[in-house]
Structure formats: C-alpha cells, structure tokens
Amino acid sequence: MVSSDGPPAGWNTGSGIDVRAEALDVLSDVRQWRLADARWRAVEQVLIAMDAAVQADDSDALMAATADLELAGPLRLTRIGATPVGPPARPVRDRLNRLVHSLGGTVPEQQREPEDPGADDAGASRH
Length: 127
Description:
By secondary structure, the protein is mostly helical. The protein has a domain at about 30-75 and about 85-105. Helix content is about 50%, strand content about 0%. α2 runs antiparallel to α3 (about 60-70).
C-alpha cells in the first residue's frame, strides 16, 4: 500500500529516484501548457496511467507514461484557425497536483489571477 505522505519506499533506490525526478520535471512543465480540450483529455489519461504506476510501485510503467506525457505536450507551431488552447480544467489540475504530491514533490500555491486586468491597480493613485 502506498502512503499518501510521499513516494513508495521502494523508490528510494538510484533508478527509482531518477524516474521520479524525471516525472516531477515533466509534471511541472504540464502546469504551464496551453492545449485544446481534446489534448487535455489525452493528458488526463496519461496522468491516470502515471498514478496507476505509482500506486503499483512500477518504475518502468512510470517511465513509459512520463515519455507519453512529454509527447502529449504542446506543438511548437499553431495553425491559423486551430482549435483554441487554454490551461487545464480543474479536474486535470487536481489530478496533476495529487500525482506530484504522491511522487514526493511539492505543489505550488494556487496563484490567484485577477478577474479584471486592472484589479491590482484599484487602490493606486491616479496622478
């Protein structure tokens, strides 16, 4: 059984640490991705596979799923008229954060984005 306080005990070997570090590195990149909804659904499926690999203490499966996640990332070029892209939906962010936590990483604090672009200037003097 896997403790929710960190990675499985068997992952404290050299190769387990390397696989976990690579997974955490890719997961940190995912937070910054902007993808179309269909691609986010594919990313969510990969996150499910990664979570299953962690729960099964299977570093080979985690390594394969991490590679799949890297391939699911954004393309360098976007065609004119392409499907709009955006950040992950809340369920994907939640799954991502739980996975980072289960791998022993830290989840960054939620950054509050102002609803109004000038909201931070509300108390500023207008001279």
